[in-house]
Amino acid sequence: MRAPIALSCGEPSGIGPEIAVKARLALGPEVPLFWIGDPRHLPAGSLWQEISAPFEALAVPATHLPVLRHDFPALAVAGKPDPANAAGVIDVISRAVALVQAGAASAVCTCPINKQALHDGAGFGFPGHTEYLAALAGVPHVVMMLACPQLRVVPVTIHIAIDQVPEALTADLLEQTIRITHAGLIRDFGIAKPRIAVAGLNPHAGEGGAMGSQEATLIAPVLGWLAGEGMQITGPWPADTLFHAAARARYDVAVCMYHDQALIPIKTLDFAGGVNVTLGLPFIRTSPDHGTAFDIAGRGVADAASLVAALRMARDMAASRGL
């Protein structure tokens, strides 16, 4: 990897600054990175070194966090986001994207944000990181994948109420999601012929229409024409039999119809080590699979395992792209 990973600060009143320091100490020279943020927001006593350009991070001692300074208007109070800092959080994300697009960084890894705090303080109009990154990249459709060593999952519909899922689930959305997932596994994970398993929407995958018709009328036809193109794809499978160990051995990713269908199994298998990956962007983006954790911010007890895994995955994805 020729360029370091850009690590955005996220919400400074959450656990982002703490886990950034912990991740750097845990990884040392294994994953070259630099943190974009206000060093005043780092935990007291943190070892850090200011850099003026990303490449300088490669020469910073492994005991210190390389910091590309981005000053914020206000200090950070643990657990209490300040509206004055909201625009700074957004600006750091766009700065990280600009650096990776310019080739100064190999990937973007984002610490957690609080969407309500950004909306209240800066009128942030996106549902989350994923949609904002897609807008910055000018990409109409991206895919959220959650990954850990035992499982990769992709939800087709994401942050919507469960009663909205049947209407939101369309053949076009399902096809786009599967195509982006397939391409991402090849480009970013080095899987030459991805095996994709697709869950049904209804209990027992509809049980022949007795418990719902979407499997027969919507999902199966999409899988049929994708399989006809040569894609290794199977389903729709009952979700309750898709995630045990023997089933997981038969696929590289499980495409699920809604948020909890995908996230419950992966968080059960590896709650601390799951990684959020955005597929379909022209650059690499990973993130820890948790939020700002305001309730424990500033106490020094936050677990950096998911951020460590996200940084390692970003490094490995960059290697798959030859970066």
From TrEMBL:
It comes from the Bacteria. It comes from Rhodobacter ferrooxidans. Substrate binds at residues 129-130, 267, 276, 285. Its EC number is 1.1.1.262. Binds 1 divalent metal cation per subunit. Can use ions such as Zn(2+), Mg(2+) or Co(2+). InterPro entries: PdxA (IPR037510), PdxA_fam (IPR005255). Its main location: cytoplasm. It holds the Pfam family PdxA. It catalyses: 4-(phosphooxy)-L-threonine + NAD(+) = 3-amino-2-oxopropyl phosphate + CO2 + NADH. This is 4-hydroxythreonine-4-phosphate dehydrogenase. Keywords: Cobalt, Cytoplasm, Magnesium, Metal-binding, NAD, NADP, Oxidoreductase, Pyridoxine biosynthesis, Zinc. A divalent metal cation binds at residues 159, 204, 259. The gene is pdxA. The active site is located at the dimer interface. Catalyzes the NAD(P)-dependent oxidation of 4-(phosphooxy)-L-threonine (HTP) into 2-amino-3-oxo-4-(phosphooxy)butyric acid which spontaneously decarboxylates to form 3-amino-2-oxopropyl phosphate (AHAP). Belongs to the PdxA family.
